[in-house]
Specification:
about 280 residues, mainly alpha, 2 domains, Cobyrinic acid a,c-diamide synthase
């Protein structure tokens, strides 16, 4: 157990550090005032919490933050009726069935923390900062809304056949960007996880078999694939692009999923996507 007893001299040193510390100055004003108002015995508890949290793995940090902050964040999201309704409308346009009730939002907040923690394996210094910003700033709840929208769109693309993905790419204004940043990573994940395995892909007529194959992915595996393939910032950016401009993601359900519509066999997009 940690020793939480401090001498009067240590307490005085801490008070001086608090009043001149650059890191302390980065806190929101209301947090600074609250921390300065705490008696020493309560400051010890804050220090102990900071020590334990910073010494923990990103996964443990995510678990703690989920339990400690999710209720408050979820309440803020449920209060933002306009944004919640707008996200529901976007999902409806893409024929995505996702009931954004309290249970679903709570699950997404937890997933957001877990996804951020996994990103932190490459950028550990940025995880705790982004999580604290999310908890402290009311505006940052919008990141979770954008994350939900982006994640659901990427899940939809993961479940498309490569032919359906190609049709989707043809609708986009910037087709090269869309293929490079979304479809190629998804198709790579399909390959390496054995979901769609091209055989004789350079043989003209052999392409059709795997090209029209519908991916079969279990719900839990689908979530894991998206998390492993895209960072939280990429998922947020996907959702944000749509909330910023409704035509950022062109979508025509009947055209994409119409199995009866003939395609000129593998037009321009097939080679660029498969190569």
């Amino acid at each position: 157990m940690m020793n939480l007893e401090y001498s009067d001299e240590q307490q005085s040193d801490f008070a001086r550090l608090m009043s001149h510390n650059i890191l302390f100055d980065k806190l929101p004003i209301e947090v600074q005032k609250w921390a300065e108002s705490l008696p020493w015995n309560q400051r010890r508890y804050v220090l102990s919490l900071c020590y334990i949290l910073c010494a923990s793995s990103p996964e443990k940090q995510a678990e703690f933050l989920d339990e400690y902050t999710a209720d408050g964040l979820m309440a803020k999201m449920l209060e933002d009726i306009d944004t919640l309704q707008r996200i529901k409308q976007y999902l409806s346009c893409f024929r995505i069935k996702a009931a954004l009730n309290e249970s679903v939002l709570r699950g997404y907040i937890r997933q957001f923390y877990i996804h951020s923690a996994q990103d932190a394996r490459c950028q550990p210094g940025q995880y705790l900062e982004s999580a604290l910003k999310l908890a402290l700033s009311p505006k940052d709840k919008d990141n979770v809304f954008n994350y939900i929208l982006g994640f659901e769109l990427i899940k939809l693309m993961f479940q498309m056949s490569w032919l359906q993905q190609e049709r989707l790419s043809r609708l986009q204004t910037n087709q090269d960007y869309f293929i490079k940043n979304y479809l190629k990573p998804i198709q790579h994940a399909h390959r390496v996880n054995g979901i769609i395995v091209p055989k004789d892909e350079r043989v003209f007529f052999a392409k059709r078999d795997f090209y029209v194959q519908k991916p079969e992915i279990k719900p839990r595996t689908l979530i894991e694939l998206v998390i492993a393939t895209f960072t939280t910032s990429q998922v947020i950016a996907c959702g944000f692009s749509l909330t910023r401009h409704s035509r950022a993601f062109e979508f025509d359900y009947d055209y994409i999923f119409n199995s009866n519509e003939p395609d000129s066999i593998f037009p321009w997009g097939s080679e660029s996507m498969l190569g």
